[in-house]
Amino acid sequence: MQSKARMIIDKDFRVGDVDKRVFGAFIEHLGRAVYGGIYEPGHATADEDGFRHDVLDLVKKLNVPIVRYPGGNFVSGYNWQDGVGPKQERPRRLDLAWRTVESNQVGVNEFADWANKAGAEVMMAVNLGTKGIDSARSLVEYCNHPGGTYWSDLRRQHGWSQPHGIKTWCLGNEMDGPWQIGHKTADEYGRIALESAKTMKWVDPGIELVACGSSNRHMATFPQWEATVLEHTYEFADYISLHTYYGNRDNDTANFLARSLDMDTYIQSVVSICDYVKAKKRSRKTMMLSFDEWNVWFHSNEADRQVEPWQEAPPLLEDVYTHEDALLVGSMLLSLLRRADRVKVACLAQLVNVIAPIMTSTGGGAWAQTIFYPFMHTSLYGHGTVLHTIVDCPVYDSKDFEEVPYLDSLAVYNEEWGEVTVFAVNRDLNNVLQLDADMRSFDGLRVAEHLVLEHSDLKAVNTEQQPNNVTPHSGGDADLTDGRLTAGLPKASWNVIRLTQ
Which residues are catalytic? Predict the structure, then answer.
């Protein structure tokens, strides 16, 4: 069976330009993200610095422009000085956030080197849990000042003569959460974030800062937390953060695939709070959003409860992603792009092994999980201007949501490249969705490619033994004739329709 969806795509209906940093990712000192993930000396593909090149190759395919580091919950108990200087002199520490042992063999300098090899910038987080203003300003000086001062000269003594030039910084992590080391009230956090931000920007006026928003929109203190924090930090912060994760614990796929509507609501709520504070302060500045943790996360919860504490780099948060997970990740990417006017930074959490698109086996191979592909497609083809599309399609009701559109889609117009890319998720689990889009405002376009990610089994996964079980194909039937785009979107599918001149 088929159902129909109509869309109007007009080049003059513009939402905003895509900031490439919206396709960022996240590496935390957690589980096997660092040790056994990006870093494994002695591995067959390891380079002279111990970084796995099979992992780097996959990261480069994702076209990740920025990577948040080193946490996450980890950062609230982290002393960055433990991870610099001669490796043999670095202390082994208990990491209370994840109840593991941290060897500190990878620190600020090594990670900056890795990011450079991956073609990405570093988004550095400072510890506002057990540390504070002095540690934060010293880290900025260590990373960004050219030389002639204590901390910058110490970096040079450690072997990095040139500054790292890190431009995007997080003022702590999830400080509203009782699980966080150094958990604070909104006023307590707002004050230390303000004072840290001031001194960090005095060291390097060119940096941008992300203030901690709520850990998720279901926190009891949301949205008052954002309003209070912004009252303190509005002058010095450039972004407020958002975090969210979704799961399908009750195995209700229709409801699960609708959860991106919750993400849409979350983003709009935070935009409204930012604009309220802007109006209250009579400010000309518009606060932007950094959605610096987002993903599907639930598969590994039970396994994590069985892990013995105080191991070094144990397997933690190693979700094995299904085809239906990839569909929701695709919709979550569309939620981010849909507010390209305000969401300027975002980080898929995380990048390798830990709730990640890339998995490795220690001493073995590396492979792409199902969620790798919608992320790769948007990071490659989602650059330009997001267009406000008009969509008319069938809807359904689920346990938690009403009038869920079967079609989740948007279009990105890259005027420089002469391209339009239509991204579309068909949430219908049983039927093909026939797309009919009016594109008469564009001249001279043709269908270059119609990529489809589909599978007969919603629970299908990729493994080291079967790394290509769930992969996209270019067999879509999209056609553009006389300004009318038509395409059959297979049931439960992710689609990328690329139109070029």
Answer: 174, 293
In degrees and rounded to multiples of 5, residue 157 shows phi and psi of -65, -30
Task: Read off the pLDDT of residues 91-110 as tens digits, 9 standing for 90 and up.
Answer: 999 999 999 999 999 999 99
Give tens-digit pLDDT for 284-316. 999 999 999 999 999 999 999 999 999 999 999
The residue among 365, 381, 397 that closes a domain is 381
Q: What is the mean pLDDT of residues 172-184?
A: 98
Same domain, 417 and 374: no
Terminal-to-terminal C-alpha distance of the chain: 33
The domain that holds 404 is classified in CATH as: 2.60.40.1180
Angle at the Cα of 268 (from 262 to 270), degrees rounded to 5? Answer: 105
**Rounded-to-integer distance, Cα 25 and Cα 311, Å:** 25
What phi and psi values does residue 344 have, to the nearest 5 degrees?
-110, -15
For residue 465, say if its preceding peptide bond is cis, omega within 30 degrees of 0.
no
Indicate if 24 and 6 belong to the same structural domain. Answer: no
pTM > 0.85: yes
pLDDT confidence tier of residue 466, bands split at 50, 70 and 90: very high
pLDDT at 198 over 80: yes
Structure tokens at 223: 């949205």
Spatial contact of 55 and 354, defined as CB atoms under 8 Å apart: no
Which residue range forms the structural domain that includes residue 217? Answer: 19-381
Contact 368, 467 (CB under 8 A): yes
Token pair belonging to 240 = 């407020």
Inter-residue contact 467 to 367 (CB < 8 Å)? yes
Cis before residue 364, ω within 30 degrees of 0?
no
- pLDDT for residue 62 is more than 80: yes
Let me know whether 427 and 359 are in one domain. Answer: no
- Shared domain for 371 and 465, answered yes or no, is no
Beta bridge partners of 322: 461
Q: How far is Cα 498 from Cα 447, in angstroms, rounded to an integer?
A: 6
Structural domain count, the chain: 2
Name 390's bridge partners.
8
Which of 473-482's residues contact partners 24+ apart within 8 Å by CB, and which partners? 474/449, 474/450, 475/450, 476/449, 476/450, 476/451, 476/452, 477/450, 478/447, 478/450, 479/447, 480/439, 480/445, 480/446, 480/447
Indicate whether 2 pLDDT > 80. no
- Distance between CA atoms of 24 and 344, rounded to whole angstroms? 10
Q: One-letter amino acid identity for 377?
A: H
Helical residues (DSSP H) of 149-283, grouped into ranges: 150-157, 186-203, 224-233, 253-257, 260-280
The yes-or-no verdict on residue 157 having pLDDT over 80 is: yes
CA dihedral for 341, 379, 499, 268, sign (positive or negative): negative
Among 348, 381, 414, the domain boundary falls at: 381
Please state, in angstroms and rounded to a whole number, the distance separating the CA atoms of residues 211 and 234: 9
Pair 209, 260: CB distance under 8 Å: no
Query: What single string gives the DSSP state of each residue in 43-59?
Result: STTB-TTSBBHHHHHHH
**Which residue do the tokens 């890795």 mark?**
114
